[in-house]
Structure formats: structure tokens, C-alpha cells
Amino acid sequence: xxxxxxTIRWFALYPASAGLTMMFAPQLPLQIFGFxxxxxxxxxxxxxxxxxVAYYYxxxxxxxxxxxxxxxxxxxLTIPLVFLALVLLxxxxxxxxxxxxxxxxxxxxxxxxxxxxxxxVFGARGHA
Length: 128
Fold this sequence. Notes:
Elements: H1 3-11, H2 13-24, H3 27-32, H4 40-62, H5 66-90, H6 95-98, H7 101-116
């Protein structure tokens, strides 16, 4: 299996576990991170969306869609910057930035695998 696609397949477990938790036990992560336990209906709906995203990751990883690996790594590597901007612009709690660690680390893993294949994550497609 393409090593970059393998990282995508395994990364799918992260949004799958987050999505299932949001659907069936949304109060658990809220309490762990010190957020108010409210809006559980919306969190459950977001859990469904997150679980569907996990399904996409699993299927695209298994299908070895390399271009998806690039796009996914780009998004996951930049998400901490997006959350930093949100925290600064809207005076949100800084803990939100820490919550991007799983995505960022997964993005690094995929980036490393793509680099090993000579595929750039950012920039023109070709061999680096």
C-alpha cells in the first residue's frame, strides 16, 4: 500500500472516535476540557458529520487516492493557524488551539510519507 494513503486510512480512526463520542457521549469531552455541557443536539449532529468524514478518509486511503493525501495534509498542517486566528479575532479560549494537535500531527505523518515518495505537499505536483 502507498505509505501516504496508509496514513490517511489510519488517521480515519481519529475523526471516527471523535465523531462517535460526539454522537453518543458528547458531555464527556465537554467536561474533560472544561466546557459547559450544553447544545448537545448540535454536538451530536456535528458528530454525524465528523463520522462521515472519517468514512471518507478510510475509503480514500484504501482506494489509494494520493491527491487526497496531499490536500488532506495541506488542510491538517494549516488548521492550527486557522484556530489561532479564530482565538485572536474572536477572543476564544486558547484551549481550542491545543485541540488541533491530533490533526496537525496526522498532517505531519502524511507529509512525511509523501516526502518519502518524492511528492510535495505544498507547491506544484511533481517530484521534489
